[in-house]
Amino acid sequence: MSRGVATRLVLASKSPARRATLVAAGITPEVIVSHVDEPAVLAALPGGRAFSGGTTTPADEVLALATAKCWAVAEGLERGRLDLPAGTGAGRLVVVGCDSMLELDGRMLGKPHRPEVARERIREMRNRSAVLWTGHFAVVLEPAGQGAWALTGQVGASASTTVHFGNMSDAEIDAYVDSGEPLKVAGSFTVDGLGGPFVTGIEGDYHSVVGLSLPLLRTMLRDVGVFWPDLWDHRRVTTER
């Protein structure tokens, strides 16, 4: 495992919660949105959708989505179709893709997008427990000269966390949906925002529920030769000088 290597994390996600999780951990990522067709990725799973009688599991589904998002950005950088923001600096890149879905009653639920869908889902979830699945995939790219990149490692894994929801009233559900927050998050809830007061407990990694498991990602990157502290802003800046 190399240490003291200027390493920058590229987040293949527009999720502000994932970015905030990394920033709070001392890592300011470069954000490049992947623009993956998620329904198409799920429809192409060789084992079918989870709970459809095939071989695909919830962990497979979120990992497939995370992998697609990561590769969309990593290959774009590697082939010159995407550029890093100006001033990013030289050094190794770690591209990370993530995706989350909520398992409830034998269904895998992503973002509801519409108020009526969010309202129905939250009414189903209240005073119950469900499993939040988050897939992670990372690719390591080393500079290969003249703006080119060489793939030196890839790794993926999924995490699951049980979430216990409180007994929300219809009025609370309506107010929460009216805020707009649950429309754009997996499972129609957040634990780090307006939805936090309605989550009564978590069994597992809190960060995974937010959308990115820091302990899992650290272990994954260790397995492909990345020393986690090299991602910290203060160490990277010192190394790049």
CATH architecture: Alpha-Beta Complex
Overall domain count? 1
Strand content: 25-35%
Q: Briefly, what CATH class?
A: Alpha Beta
Low-confidence region ranges? none
The tally of beta strands, per DSSP, is 7
Any idea of the CATH topology? Maf protein
Quick one: overall form? globular
What's the average pLDDT?
A: 92
- How many individual helices? 8
Secondary-structure-based class equals alpha/beta
The helix-strand sequence is EHEHHEEHEEHEHHH
Radius of gyration: 19 Å
End-to-end gap: 22 Å
How would you explain this protein's 3D organization?
- The model has no long low-confidence stretch (mean pLDDT 92).
- The chain has helices spanning 16-24, 38-43, 58-78, 115-125, 170-178, 206-210, 214-223, 233-240, and strands at residues 7-11, 30-31, 92-104, 107-109, 129-145, 148-165, 199-203.
- Helix 4 (115-125) runs antiparallel to helix 5.
- Strands 1, 2, 3, 4, 5, 6 and 7 form a seven-stranded mixed sheet that branches.
- The protein starts with 6 loop residues before the first strand and ends with a helix.
- 33% of the residues lie in helices and 26% in strands.
- The chain has 241 residues and is of the alpha/beta class.
- The chain is globular, with a radius of gyration of 19 Å.
- The chain has one domain (7-240): Maf protein (Alpha-Beta Complex), CATH 3.90.950.
- It has eight helices and seven strands.
